[in-house]
Amino acid sequence: MDYETLMQLLASTLRLGTPLLFACLAGLFSERAGIFDIGLEGKMLMAAMASGATAAITGSAWVGLSAGICAALVMALLHGLASITFRGNQLISGVALNFVASGATVLIAQALFQQGGRTPPLSGAARFGPIHLPWAAEIGAVPVIGPIYQQVLSGQSILVYAALACVPLSWWLLYATRFGLRLRAVGENPESVDTAGISVVRLRYMAVLVTGILCGLAGTYMATALQAGFGREMTAGRGYIALAALIFAKWRPWHALWATMLFGFLQALALRPDVIEGVAHVSIPVPALDALPYVLTVIVLAGFVGKAVGPRAGGQPYVKER
Amino acid sequence: MTNRHETARQETATPDMPPPNAPAAIELRGISKAFGAVQANRDISIRVMPGTIHGIIGENGAGKSTLMSILYGFYKADSGEILIHGRETQIPDSQAAIRAGIGMVFQHFKLVQNFTVLENIILGAESGALLRPSKAKARTELARLAREYELDVNPDARIEDLSVGHQQRVEILKALYRQADILILDEPTGVLTPPEADHLFRILDHLRKQGKTVLLITHKLREIMEITDTVSVMRRGEMTATVQTAETTPEQLAELMVGRKVLLRVDKAPARPGRLVARIRDLRVTDEAGVERLKGIDLTLRAGEIVGIAGVAGNGQSELLEALGGFAKATGSITINDTPLDLGGQASAGRTRRAAGIAHVPEDRHRLGLILDFTAWENVALGYDDAPEYRRGPLMDNGAIIADTRGKMDRFDVRPPDPFLPARGFSGGNQQKIVLAREIERNPDLLLIGQPTRGVDIGAIEFIHKRIVELRDAGKAVLLVSVELDEIMSLSDRIAVMFDGRIMGERLPARTDERELGLLMAGVETEAAT
Fold it and tell me: What is the pLDDT of residue A306?
């Protein structure tokens, strides 16, 4: 494999890792506040459909983005209502919302466009196109490092940069602000927050809304940047992969970046069977390659990567003790 | 001690009749609160003067915690008024309580385990949206509080690495950092070792000297007598009396609490130790982390004798019980009635122990003694489910077990006597009676009993102590482990003091005192006064 191919593979990793990174950070905020969210998948799917449809109608990717975020926020609020206000089982609520998303997206898209549950192909301003970073060509001439800047980092959609920026931003929010301190506390011991005179319910809703926004970004990216339009089940389990990455990352933002990029790399590899054949001199069937990220997910979730201890109050509705 | 009461009284005049121009720090007028049909608080009125320590004493379920929860904004009283420093104050939530200058130290700490001390202190009392300035401010303030009140804690330590005593200090610091001048402590010594409790009392004394008001909720008479200026007694949701501590006695308080005369000392005849029941030789236990917890215990237990194990919690008493009870792997030897026990810690060990005549009332009844979600009768059958009288062919004879449970509940005065109530629904004392009934009525040769009265109210303590002595008088051997030195002193016929996995020495209760036992508990060798 030459350097050129490696650059292509890494650029592809970044592209494919971005929705995972958004979703993983989304899950991070929710779970750090003590709300399990298995419904990342459904929120992404809703956002993808809403943004794809809106962008197709308005011709603007940005309007599509706001529609995507709104759709995911509605889903997030439903999950919040079920798990915070009504203290329901968070796993069941998440699974139910995934089912709803899976059916509703296709239904709405079909009703709107009669194209078999797809939204019309997007082009031009209806998509988030590649952005070329300044001096890409000049820096690209620098050996070894240059191509990374020119071919991997430059030429990505603005949402990719947004996702990367979310990593330090999330870190800063969690560890340097009052909001972050309270958020982490409410996921560990909500009673400590309650007795300090802070509303557990309000904090958890805020966390769930952040999750909604990030899932909205993830879904919109899928429909308007990675692909050109929404297609049935286009998220293909990425919400679950993001959850696995979250455990892998032990609920920390920087680790989430590395974990999601590892999954992104496996997905990128699956698109290039020729590279594997070139390096390993064996031909692996494409379906087997496609399965790689999912296999890693199973391995992570089965706990083969070491013990990961999540937020202590995770998954438990908060009921004031008598 | 007398000194302190005198100075306190001089500062505050008599709490019952305060000078007209000095408003009480807290005044409650006619507070009532009902949960459904249960009247938790009925027409409660008290005045607590500033700069005093006011004790509130009562049995479990007397309504102490409900009253404090009302004061801290967890519940809203159905009727009544709260006055703080003379001003009527509404306390709809904890935020309002904090604003009114009330700080609360709960029995179960409300700390975030994986946060640092500093993070826990500022949580909810941050000075701005960013943490850095809040932390800097808190650090300075903590240093000041540490100097002023003997409240030293490393601000950068994580809570989970701190001892229970230190965690409690963090809770007190949290309240002081929020400028509380009224501090409520709910059963603060339940989780502390004796030296930690002493330290806590010194802190409370400093607080009083600084003019803070302390409300101390407890069911331990000794603490009330030791530290408070005035004491209010609660019984069945009502405030039955408020008296000057210096003018009352533990006996009087106990009577006020329970509503009848209570025997505080255990009444027992001298022991007549008989044949050897158990011989423990060079018993060693190593924990999962590879630390040796028991470092060679030698002990004999005789029929008709109560041997008390004294010691600060965590010095190997639990491991001794676990090894004897069969759920810790040990080396050395234990013989019961001349039959050696298997010390491998197999799953079947509990069953073989019971067959050998050992009954066990474990220290942590919630974890090891009961299944809280099971009903009383199911809990009575635990461990004895294959007893012939509980079986009908291959099936359990539920009717027989329930009937037996009714009998046990009657004989052990379990309230309410409802075999179908889940164990969770009973008070601590009644839960303990269920465990005790299950184990004692099997007529064991040796009873292992750990912390028999932890979380048990005073009326039940008397009952449980009586049953233990009765068992002894019936010619059984009893091994009693307790961190309550009073309990050890009054029940035991022979006392062994444990320190750091070893037995420091054996003493006879009549020939020793708390001072000597305290030294042994701290690991200081003393000469036996024989």
Answer: 67
Compute the distance between CA of residue B432 and CA of residue B452 in angstroms, rounded to an integer: 7
Give B367's DSSP letter. I
Q: Which residues pair with B105 in a beta bridge?
A: B185
- Close Cβ partners of B57 (under 8 Å, ≥ 6 residues apart): B64, B217, B218, B219, B221, B224, B231, B232, B233, B234, B253, B257
Contact assessment for residue A252 and residue A56, using Cβ atoms and an 8 Å cutoff: no
Q: Which residues of B touch A312 (CB under 8 A)?
A: 113-114
B94 and A184 within 8 Å at the Cβ level: the answer is: no
Interface of B with A in 113-142 (CB under 8 A): 113-115, 119-120, 122-126, 128-132, 134
pLDDT for the residue B462: 87
Q: Are B405 and B376 in contact (CB under 8 A)?
A: yes
CA-based radius of gyration for chain A: 20
pLDDT of B367: 86
Handedness of CA B348, B349, B354, B355 (dihedral sign): positive
Burial label for A319, CB within 10 Å (0-12, 13-18, 19+), is: exposed
Chain B residue whose CA is closest to A175: B131
Q: Check residue A156 and give its pLDDT.
A: 93
Residue A220 tokens, joined: 């919109």
B159 and chain A in contact, CB less than 8 A: no
List alpha helices for B368-456, DSSP H: 376-381, 398-411, 428-440
Q: Are B70 and B33 in contact (CB under 8 A)?
A: yes
* Half-sphere exposure at residue A283, Cβ-oriented, CA atoms within 13 angstroms: 1
- Among A62-66, B88-92, B427-431, the range scoring the smallest mean pLDDT is B427-431
Q: What global pTM score does this model have? A: 0.78
3-state secondary structure of B35: strand
Q: Which of A181, A198, A199, A318 to mutate to test the interface with B (most CBs of B within 10 A)?
A: A181
The answer, yes or no, to whether residue B375 has pLDDT greater than 70, is yes
Q: How far apart are CA B214 and CA B180, in angstroms?
A: 10
User: In whole angstroms, what is the distance from residue A185 CA to residue A187 CA?
Assistant: 5
Is pLDDT of A211 > 90? yes
pLDDT bucket at A321, cuts 50 / 70 / 90 = low
ipTM of the complex: 0.89
pLDDT digit string (tens) for B289-334? 788 889 999 999 999 999 999 987 778 999 999 999 988 899 999 9
> Is residue B120's pLDDT more than 60?
yes
pLDDT (average), residues A26-45: 96
- pLDDT score, position B527: 65
DSSP string, A134-194: TTHHHHHTSTTHHHIIIIIITTEEHHHHHHHHHHHHHHHHHHHBHHHHHHHHHHH-HHHHH
Say if residues A232 and A106 touch (Cβ distance below 8 Å).
Answer: yes
Domains and CATH numbers, chain A: 3-124+147-301 (1.10.3470)
Structure tokens at B442: 């099997």
Please tell me the distance from the alpha carbon of residue A45 to that of residue B517, in angstroms, as a whole number.
69
DSSP string, B40-54: EEEEEEEEE-TT-EE
Question: Which residues of chain B neighbour A181 with C-beta distances below 8 Å?
Answer: 119, 122-123, 126, 131
Cis preceding linkage at B18, omega within 30: no
Question: Which has the closest alpha carbon to B423: B383, B380, B373, B475?
Answer: B373
pLDDT in tens, B177-230: 999 999 999 888 877 767 788 899 999 999 999 999 999 998 778 888 989 999
Cα–Cα distance measured from residue B264 to residue B267, given in angstroms and rounded to the nearest whole number? 9
Q: How many whole angstroms from its chain centre is CA A43? A: 10
Distances (CA, A) of B190 to B59, B194, B253, B257: 14, 10, 19, 19
